[in-house]
Each structure stands twice: as C-alpha cells, then as structure tokens.
Amino acid sequence: MKKTFLSLLLLCSLPVLSQDNGQDTFVQNLLSQMTLEEKIGQLNLSAGEDFSTGQAQSTNIAGKIKNGQITGIFNIKGVDKIREMQRIAVEESRLKIPLIFGMDVIHGYETVFPIPLGLASTWNMEAIEQSARIAALEASADGIHWTFSPMVDIARDPRWGRIAEGSGEDPFLGGAVAQAMVKGYQGDNTYTGNDRIMACVKHYALYGASEAGRDYNTVDMSRIRMFNEYMYPYQAAVEAGAESVMASFNEVDGVPATANKWLMTDILRNTWHLKGFIVTDYTGIEEMTAHGIGDLQTVSARALDAGIDMDMVSEGFLSTLAQSFKEGKITEEQINTACYRVLVAKYKLGLFTDPYKFCDTQRAKTQIYTPEHRSIARKIAAESFVLLKNADDVLPLKKQGTIAVIGPMANTRSNILGAWSVSADLSKPATLVEGLKEVSGKNTRIVYAKGSNLTEDAEYEKRSTGTGHTLYRDNQTNEQLLNEALSAAQKADVIVAALGEASEMSGESSSRTDLNIPDVQQDLLKALLKTGKPVVLVLFTGRPLTLTWEQENVPAILNVWHGGSEAAGAIGDVLFGDVNPGGKLVATFPKNVGQIPLYYNHKNTGRPLPEGKWFEKYRSNYLDVDNEPLYPFGYGLSYTQFEYSDVKLSSSTMEANGNLTASVTVTNKGQRAGAEVVQLYIRDREGSVTRPVKELKGFEKVFIEAGQSKEITFQITPGLLKFYNYHLEYVLEPGEFDVMIGGNSRDVKTIRFTLH
Ligand code: BGC
Fold it and tell me: Which CATH number goes with the domain that contains 459?
C-alpha cells in the first residue's frame, strides 16, 4: 500500500514522462529542471558506513541526500537501511531523484564463490556466468543494483595481492571471463525484473602492472604492450555491454588514469564506444594531489575534463566544480554530459518508476544464501581447485581410518571465504575440519590440531587477518603447538596439512615480497613430513606462491585458493574422490621471487636459451635458477590422465579471408571419468614487431569417460592472428604460424601453417 502511494507521489512530482516514454526525453526533461548544484550532486558517490577501503568518509549523509548532494551510496548492507536512505532521497530532496546503491559484490554476495583467480581456474565460462547471476540475484534481493565487478586487470606479478581479484595473466582468457561475468550480472541489459544488477569494469587501466607488485604503485608501459597484452579484457567487457567502468588509481603515461583524457575519452568512449558512465576509484580524485598534479580544484576539473562522470568519496566534484565553472575552467555542458549519463543509468535500472524496486523485503528473506545457491557454489568451488602434485596416487583419500587435519587454516570459517567477501556472514562457512567430517562419513575419524600460527611475527599476522578475519592467535610457543600437532599426527593414517595464506593476506593492500608459505607453517610442514606418514598439503592462497621445496618433498598438493562459503565441503568432495579435480592455473607459479615477472606469453629475446638447457653463458638466463616456472600457466592434474594425439590442421596454408580447423584427439587413459581443459596456443613466427612465444587463442573444457576419446576442434580465424603493430594499427600479417595444443602451456604438440 505504502509502496504504491510513494511511487505515485514520486511520479507526480517528477518531470512527466513524454508520450514515447523515452529515456532521452525523460532525462533531458529532468536535467532542464536541475540547478547546477543539483547536477553536481548527481556526480557525487558516498561510501556507506559498513565497509571502507580508504580514509575520507562523508559525514552527514542524510543531510546531503536531502540537499541533493549525493547520487548514490555503496557498501551498505541491508534492505531496510537502503530503503530508508532511498526514502529520504525520494521524499525529502527537491527533485526526488532516487539514489543508486552499489557494492563490491566480487565473488558472490552471501553465497560466496571462489576468489576470482580461483573462478577463472575453472575455465568454465558457464559456471562463471552462473556465479555472477547468483551474486546478482542475492545482491538485488538485498537492495543492491550496481556491483564494482568484474575486475579484469591482467596481473603477471604475484607479489601484488590483488592478483586474487582477477583472472590472472592472459588477456584472451581474461576477456572471456569478463564477458561471462557482465552477462551474469546484467543479463540482457533491460532490467525489466528486479534481479539483475549493473556491472562496473575495473580498474581501468593497467592497475595490475604496478611496479614491484606494490599496491597503488606507478605503472609505466609502452602502448604496444598495452594494446597487445593488457587492454583486451576491458574492451571485451565494454563490448559485452558493461554499464559502467571504474578508473584505476595508477598513472598511465605519467597522468593518473582518473585524469587521463586519452584513456577515458579517446579510447574508452571514442574507440570502444562505452555508453555507460565512468566512476573513479575510492578517493581517486583527491589522491591526484598526492600524485602531484594539482590541488583538489585542479584535479577535480581535470577528472571531469578527462571524461569521469562520478566521483567516489573524494567530494572533489561536490566541493569545487561550481567554482571551476564560475572561473571558466569547465563548462556546464561537461557537467550536463556527466549528469546525463548518471541519470540514464538510474532510468535504465527503473528507479524513476519505482525507487524501491530492489527493496522487496520478502526477496531478501527468501532468496539469499539458499540451499540451491550453496550447492552450486560448492560444485564451482570444487571445479576451481588445482591439483599440483599427486605422487603415488596419495589422493583421493579413503573414507576410513584416522585423518589428522593440521594447520592454521584447518579450523577457520572467515578465512575460507577470501578477500572481498564484504557481504558474507563470516561466521557461517563450515571449517575444513567440519567439511571433511561431513564428506568422509561415519567410518572415518578426523583429529585436529592447529600446529602453528599463521606467521611467527604476531604483527604480521594481525595485518594479514584484518576486517574480522581473525585466526585467533594461539599464545602457546611454537614448540607447544608443534607437539600438539605431532601427537595428533601419531594417531593418524594420513595427514592433511591446511596451510597457506589467510583471506586478507591477498587482495587489496596485501602485497608481499616473500611468497613462501610463511615461516612457522613451513616448519610445521617439515615436522609433519618427518613422521613418515603420507602428507597432503591443502594449500589456501590468493596468489601464486613459491612452492619449490614443497614440490620436491610433499607427496600431494591440492591448491584450493580461498574457495568461498562452501569451500570446506568442496575440498572434502575432491580429497575423497567424489569429484575429480580439473582446475588449471591461470597465473604462472614461479620457482622463486627473483624470476618475477614470469609469464608464459613472453617474448623470445635475441638470445633465448636453447631448448633443454637451463644455463648457457651469454644467453638470457640466471646463474642460480633456470628460466622455467615451477607450474606453468594452464597446468593442473587430475585423478586420471589425458593423452593428446593426432594434432591436425585442415590445411597447411590459410588465406587472409579464410580460416582453418585445428583438431586433436584427447583420450582419458586412466580409471576415472574427468574433465580436461584443452588449450590452443598460437605463435606468429615472423612479425613486423616481435611477437610472444605463444598466446592462448582457444580452449575447451571437455568431460571424458575413462577409456574414451574425444576429438576437439578449434576454428582459427584471421581475427585470432591479428595484433597491434608499431603504429598501433590492428593488423593481420602474412607469414608462418605455429599452432600448439595441449593440457597446459608447456606440454604442447606443435604444427605449422602459412598465412598468405
Ligand atoms: C578498490 C575498488 C573498490 C572500491 C570500493 C577501492 O579501494 O580499489 O576495487 O571497488 O575501493 O570499495
């Protein structure tokens, strides 16, 4: 009853919809009634009180909403709170313009999926889309209609904690994931119902290339590298119809992205044709004063001029644009354009028709964290795990005997979720111990000991377990903790060591220079191995770690990332063989930190190392470690084995307007059915500029029964062979190309063709 009344009230007091009911007419009409201050207010986004990642916070939010000085709020949770803020906007502000509500719904809402790096490791685009679809369903049921996702920054440096939030090092795969996520959130972009949310592609651009892997650090790269290796995922997301884009914190070509007109206007708007709006990152405008390009008024005007439409948290637009307008530094048309784009987004969402469209309290009660969503999340989590080693078939475990589950990650709920699980209830996920008990059943005894803290240094542990993700540091000595672990291990037939990173040890502002499993945990692992019992390392991590010692000494390693709210059961499903693991790495695991950046799609140099050698004087190599990664891009084992044979091309030549078919037979040689990610790489052997030694250009995930074979085919089209040349023209150049097919980027079978 109340809802109808409010909507009517709103409609009466807003500009009357034109006869064609058109978006443009409506928004232009509304704009024509707005004061300059009200227009600027529509460009100002405020952080809610629930969660923040920076310093500045707007005060007196309610007062500002009434004054028309806030366009939307992000990271507040709860439909009641959202409804109340919306009420203030549509009942108490002059023009009654509804607010937009955003949130970092990054890998699920309350049903949490694996961190994005894990999600990408499924190589299953339907599953990724489904995870975004469920995230949209749950978030929209709780009042949210805009998410700051997908994060599509290419990252080749695992020191950077935010590698956890993206799809790893490859632009082709990254573009596919970006499109799947946009589709999952937005559907067909009509927002006719109330269960789709707008996506925001971030962080544009090149944020993942920060120097030394230190967060927010300087980026400097050639344009040819940008376009061939980093830009595609942003472009792909825009092409998939993403409604908004977030500017990155870093500089690009010496100008912070937030004020970079070439980036925002020439490329994003004029070349890729973004239709939606551009928002800054958290205090992105204010931070440009620290970058050293001017005071708040100057940088705010520069951001608007560059093409930014919405200011997140800085209040630089709010506090200075009117003055800049008076001084002739910006035009009203620029403000109108930005305001228009923001209002169009609200219109498209349907907020002018019903500002409470996403405030249905019944949905909030029944559609969040449902058994159905959770069972899908469990399946996807299991699919994201990567089996790194399995000597002597230690895995899968039998559902019998005694299993000692040992380590600081064995008995935690909040740390199983992963970074950016801001909307989850941290107390809900099962612990690994609980998950293993559930799956292993009555005939198995599970014993537990913590064994060690996360890190020796209590302060380091504190920094790595913030925002509620505590590991409840144990004040016993290392020796006491170890003794407890060894006595639990004595009782066991098998040891499961649950080690690695806590949730907040990767993600934003969590860069590391040492990528080993932390000190006390390694000591624990060594002591457990000395018992002589079989040890399975269940590795929790948000990034590639350096596992050289572990690879040599631990019989089985299952990398489970941070698998989300249903991870514990999913780990049980895989450890006990109910699910056969099939995840494949999307970021290279180096042997040591000194090899970084290490990525599969590198250039050859003029002095490449001859095949089969690991050092030769005056070649491009190191004295102390070979050039190879520990685990290459695309790598991951299964409980079965796949064999590749009959790699063929439909022809050894291709015309510039033609195409080719590449095919391969994949046979499951083992005893179990399983999924394999068949990967196709291409190398351009002679270009007008140097080209990478291989680039992913196709993949297919296939399920093959034991003993069966499948033929997989890939179409090689001219589009797959194009690249940006020295003049940044996107070209197809004739010459020889290698086609490589295999189950990872290293172990491939090669065949060649010539493009005429
Ligand atoms: C992060 C963004 C995030 C924003 C809002 C920033 O610190 O860089 O990824 O969307 O905060 O929470």
Answer: 3.40.50.1700
